[in-house]
């Protein structure tokens, strides 16, 4: 019984992280649907978590869809007033996904922003 009680915070944290990840991905999906960009696949990989494969869309569509995931997590940080651990999980997820590293939303956002500033608006 002691072991189960000891591990409860660990599994609770993992569950909240998975919920934050699912809601993050839903943000991308809702944004893509709202912008009429076709979703080709939603999947899960052990080393990447949930992911979506979609049509590229325009650079503006791509920017908004990439922003939507971290934005959902940032909005859910407000839930920390009632459920601090869930707010923290969302803050961590938003920050981790906003870093401009390979395959992240942050790198996609930075790339879109750079293309928009250069005037590459077609795609
Ligand atoms: Zn994302």
How is this fold's topology laid out?
Layout: H1 2-34, E1 39-45, E2 49-54, H2 59-76, H3 84-98, H4 105-118
Antiparallel strand pairs: 1-2
Helix pairs in contact: 1-2, 1-3, 2-3, 2-4
What does this molecule look like?
There is one protein chain. This protein has one domain (2-118). The protein has four helices and two strands, in the order H-E-E-H-H-H. The protein has helices at residues 2-34, 59-76, 84-98, 105-118, and strands at 39-45, 49-54. The protein has a two-stranded antiparallel ribbon with strand order 1-2. The longest helix is centred in the N-terminal third of the chain and has 33 residues, at 2-34. It is elongated. The termini are far apart. The mean pLDDT is 91.
What's the total number of strands? 2
The unreliable regions are none
- What small-molecule ligands were found? zinc ion
Classification by helices and strands: mainly alpha
Strand residue percentage? 5-15%
Mean pLDDT over the residues: 91
- How many H/I helical runs? 4
N- and C-termini, Cα separation: 57 Å
Question: What is the subunit organization of this protein?
Answer: single chain
What kind of sheet is the major sheet?
2 strands, antiparallel
Instruction: Please state the CA-atom Rg, rounded to the nearest Å.
Output: 16 Å
Question: How many structurally independent domains?
Answer: 1
Shape from CA axes? elongated
Instruction: Give helix % range.
Output: 55-70%
Q: What is the succession of H and E elements?
A: HEEHHH
Strand order of the largest sheet: 1-2
């Amino acid at each position: 019984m002691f072991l189960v009680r000891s591990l409860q915070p660990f599994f609770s944290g993992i569950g909240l992280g998975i919920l934050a990840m699912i809601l993050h991905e839903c943000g991308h999906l809702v944004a893509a649907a709202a912008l009429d960009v076709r979703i080709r696949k939603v999947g899960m990989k052990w080393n990447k978590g949930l992911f979506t494969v979609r049509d590229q869309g325009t650079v503006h569509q791509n920017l908004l869809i990439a922003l939507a995931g971290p934005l959902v997590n940032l909005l859910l940080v407000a839930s920390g007033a009632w459920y601090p651990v869930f707010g923290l999980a969302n803050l961590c997820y938003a920050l981790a996904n906003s870093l401009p590293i390979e395959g992240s939303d942050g790198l996609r956002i930075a790339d879109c922003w750079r293309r928009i500033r250069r005037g590459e608006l077609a795609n």
